[in-house]
Structure formats: C-alpha cells, structure tokens
Amino acid sequence: MSHLQLSWLKRLHAGAEESQGLVLRDELGQTYGDHRSQSQMSSPEDPEHTQNTNNATITSWEAGWNVTNAIQGLFVLGLPYALLQSGYLGLLLLVLAALICSYTGKILVSCLYEEDENGCPVRVRHTYEDIANACCRHICPCIGGKVVNVAQLVELVMTCILYLVVSSNLMCHSLFFLPLSPTTGSAISFLILLPCMLIRDLRVVSRLSLFCSLAQFLITFIVIGYCVRQSPQWASRSLRAAVVDFDSFQVAVGVIIFSYTSQIYLPTLEESMMDRLDFSTMMDWTHALACVLKTAFSVLAFLTWGEETKEVITDNLPSALRTVVNLCLLAKALLSYPLPFYAAAEILQTGLLKLDSGSERWTLLLLRGSLLLLTLLMALFVPRFSLLMGLTGSVTGAAMTLLLPALFHLQLKWTQLDLSRRMLDLLILLLGGFCSISGVICSIRGMITVFEDNQQQMQEKTILLVATSSQVGFNIHTEKTKILKINSNCNNPVTLNGNSLEEVQFFTYLGSIINQQRRTDTDSKARMGKARTTLTLLKNIWASRELTLTTKTHLFNSVLLYGVKTWRITKTTIQTGSQMKSPRESEKRPSKKTPGNVT
Q: Which residues pair with 20 in a beta bridge?
C-alpha cells in the first residue's frame, strides 16, 4: 500500500482512533486547547449531565418546540407552489426530506460523543465547531471550526434579516389603516425586537418558540380549513405525473429541503436538555408532525387552486382571510427572530470572539446590540437582499444541513458503521452537493437577470416605443416625456433622440397621481379637493326640486368616487373623506344653506 493511501486512511480513521480510551479523550481535549476535567465530560446515561454551566436546562418538549419553530418556518407558505412545480416527485420529496433532515440531525449530535473503554458514549465535544476541529486536526487544526462558525453566523444573520424584512412588509400590508412605509415598518420591528438583547436563557427562547409554533399551526389550520370548504373543486385538479421542468424542479427541491433545516441549533439544544436520551425521539416526532402538516397543507392547497397556485399561498386567499393570516404571519416572524439571534450571538460571543459568560455585562449587551443593529441596517440598505439570501443560503444551508453532517459522521464513525450506513451517508453527500450547486446556479441566474444592465433594457424599450409610434403617425415629444422609476437602483439617464428624458418623483395619469412610493394619499387628497370644488359649482342642482334625491346621490358619488377602487384605504384617507357631506346628509339638516355648501 502506498504512502499516500496510508496517509489517507490515517486521516479517514482519525475519529475512530479517538474512541480508544480516556487517555486519547484527554489528548482530544488538549488538541482543542480545552483542558476540561474528566467530570466535565458527560454521558447521556449520566444523571449528572444535567448540570450545565453554560445553558439552563430545558425539557424535551421545550427542545421540540424550538426544533418545530425552525422547521415550520416561513418556507411552508411556498410548499404548495413547490408541489405544483415538482408534481408527484414533490410528494415523495416532502417525506424523504423529513427523514433525511431528521437523520442528519441525529448523526450530527452523535458526532459529539465517543465511546469510552466500557463502550459507554461520553460527550467529548460541545459544539459544531468542536466536531469540525476534530475532523480537521490532522490537516489544519482549528481551521475547520472557524469555517463552520463563520458559515453558521452568516446563515443565522441572514435568517434574522429575512425575518426582519418579512415582518416589516407584513406590517405595511396588514395594518392598512396606518400609513406605514417599509422603512418605518422595519424601524418598528426593530424596536419590538430590542428585548432580544437581554435574552441569555434558552428557556425564554423556548417559550417564544412555543407561541411561534402555535401561530404557525393556526395559519396552517386556517388555510386547510378554507381548502376543505372548497372541496367540490378538487375533482378537476391533478398533480403532474410526467417529467417536470428541471429548473422548476431544482427550485422546488431547495424550498422543500430547506423547510426542514434545524441542524445549526441542535448541539446547543441537545446539551441543554434535561434528558438527552429523549433527543432521538424528539427529532422523530417533530419531523413526523412537520411532514404530516406540510404534506396535508401542500396537497389541499394545490387541490383548491391548482395551476393558479401562487408562489406565496396567502396571495390566493380572499382579502379578509388574507389579512387575518398576514397578522398571524407577522406574529410568527417577530417570534421567530429570537431563536436565530440567540444562536448567532452565542456563536459570535463564544466561538469567534472567545468571550466567556463572566465578561462585562455591558460588553455583552454592546455585542448583541450591534448584531441587532446590523440586521436592521442590512434589511434597510442592502439591495436585492432576497437574491443575496438565496446565494448564501444555497452554500451555507446545504453545507450545514446535508454535506457536513454526513462528511463528519463518515470520518469520525467510519469503523463503527456498516456498509448500508456508509452508503446512506454518501448518498446524502451527493444530495447536498446537488442542492448546493443547483441553488447557486439558480441564484446567480436570478442576479444576472436582475442586474444585467436595467438601463439598457429601459433604453431599448424606449427606442422600440418610438419606432412603433412613428409607424402609425405618432411622434413622441422629448420635452413633454417624463420618466418615473420604481424600485430601480439604476441612475443612468434614458435618452430619446440624443436628449436625456427628465426623471420625476410623481406624475398624473388619467387624473390619478402616481408616485415612487406607490401610495394613494396624495391622489385621494387631490381627488377630494377637485370634488369639493366641483360639488360647490353644482349648488343649483342640489337645490333643484325636480331631481330626486337618488339622482343627486348618484351624481355626488360619480364626482367624488372616481378612481376610488385604486386607493389604498388609510387613516388619513378616511379622515379626509369623512369631511365630505353627501346631499342626503345635507337635506336631512334643517339649515338655510344649500346642499352646494360642502365643506
């Protein structure tokens, strides 16, 4: 056997050699630079393992709610659309994803343990970082842990930002009676989440996860209940049995698999459990429950809307029901934030900056406050954050959920695995590579589509408009043509016949005012002002005895309510509209004023 083969086998079996006794376990602790005493190494069967100096203990139910919070996330709302894109394969994938993610979570935690000379499992590692360091110690000590910590931190911070962006958008759309902009919604969400800086106990996070899971269950049951009421329509719906489009399928694979991810939190959760022997059972029932709910949710939603299923299923709901669901989603987004924030703060504090729990309280508060502020700033100022999230999530999400657990398990437990377990881990490695590569390709394609010179596209469309108009005898006047850009980061001017077209903040089209914020307050105020002036000029009509009250009311409404269906109803609009008095109200008042005296 060559020297290269011997060197490879030595590295591959490095984890198995660790388990040959207490002496080698101590050597492992020295490799980490962590001189833990024997009493600090714990076994699941050891009743003393519940005395954890870093985290307060939690029950198996509390740990289960945390896992449920992670795997019953906002991705659930995209599952019906993913099922539409993937057909019957999507149904199979919903079940397989639950089994695979439950398995990778359990093998990741098993890598925290080694067997002593009596064959009893002993917890010799405490974090994802420790596992990575153990696998890379013969190649480059500590580099594996640093890479894993950075990947975890990026994934968790991106998740926090996502929840902040979603909560601000839901706040703007759900609280329609308040004139809120996305920036204001983000600021309000930030103020609501400020107490997260003070959370130092995992039990608090567990209780918040409980309420978050309840909000998720409420959303799921509302949608399922509505779908059941629409059951007469189900006969006309059927999933695709043929081969689906590859691009659509790989997007569906990413949505389904990443809706089950919780591996980042598992080492901390398992260490904090009162009875670690319940960890495997907890993983089984949480993923089984998630699989049943997600499958029922996806299938019933597809049977109800079929080919009209939207990317976010709440867009298919009636407006009144959509508002209720959006409010539940808002509560869920805000309650989901503390779990990734707590995990990110712990990794940043102990994994990267190496700050112990005895550090100055103000130092820790400053660290957590800075992290919270960072999520707000990125949510406000990073353009196309969803595409950036997709790219980083494709790399870090697939690696942390599928690739690394299977790779670490193979390296540390190679000699203890039979052939079937080795083949299973290798298949998961291949699946993780497929998800990562396909996700990166999709994200890059999306970025290219969005950023491939938007100015050129606008310029080409302008030239095409000029050419088409000239064919039918219309000429576009350069000085009278204005441009309004909405959600565009391009600052280059659009030209027409060599002259730059003027860019404006708003303009009037068919009597309606359109602005960059797409709000209707300005339009409604202008419309009511015009109506007030017009109604005053019609005082002779209001005073006429020949016209019926019904005719006057129809005329009043036709003048005032033109274009009202496009208005966004806000508190300001309601207050302004309440000042307008109809002829019916005026005639009921015993006054010398004519109905034309409208205020």
A: none
Residue 122 pairs in a beta bridge with 114
In sequence order, the 6+-apart residues with CB closer than 8 A to the CB of 212 are 69, 331, 332, 335, 336
- Rounded CA-CA distance 296/79 in Å is 11
The whole-number pLDDT of residue 109 equals 93
* 3-state SS track over 106-141: HHHHHCCEEECCCCCEEECCCCHHHHHHHHHCCCCC
Q: 279 with 471: CB under 8 angstroms? A: no
Q: How confident is the model at residue 240, as a pLDDT?
A: 56
- The radius of gyration of the chain from alpha carbons, rounded to an integer in Å, stands at 31
CA 316, CA 493: separation in Å to the nearest integer?
38
> In the numeric block, which tokens belong to residue 197?
């800086």
Helix H or strand E encompassing 585? helix 583-588
Q: Are 219 and 332 in contact (CB under 8 A)?
A: yes
**Which of 83, 117, 160 lies closest to 339, judged by CA?**
160
CA–CA separation, 59 vs 346, rounded Å? 20
CB 365 within 8 A of CB 421: no
DSSP string, 285-330: HHHHHHHHHHHHHHHHHHHHHGGG--SSGGGGS-HHHHHHHHHHHH
Q: 């009509």: which residue's tokens?
A: 541
SS3 of 115, please? Answer: strand
Helix (H) or strand (E) holding 123: strand 121-123
Domains parsed from the chain with CATH numbers: 3-44+53-451 (1.20.1740.10), 454-504 (no CATH), 512-588 (no CATH)
Query: What is the per-residue pLDDT for 599?
Result: 34
The rounded average pLDDT for each run of 10 residues, N- to C-terminus, in the chain (599 residues) is: 40 38 36 39 50 61 86 76 78 88 93 86 88 83 82 85 83 73 84 89 83 85 88 67 58 72 87 90 92 88 84 80 86 88 88 72 87 88 62 73 91 90 93 80 70 66 81 78 68 74 70 60 68 75 81 72 58 56 49 41
For the entire predicted model, the pTM comes to 0.64
| Nearest CA among 481, 128, 381, 77 for reference residue 270 | 128
Q: What pLDDT is stored for residue 508 in this prediction?
A: 67
DSSP string, 320-379: HHHHHHHHHHHHHHHHHTHHHHHHHHHIIIIIIS---TTS-HHHHHHHHHHHHHHHHHHH
pLDDT at 105: 93
Strands 499-500 and 495-496: antiparallel
Smallest Cα–Cα separation from 131: which of 416, 410, 421, 433?
410
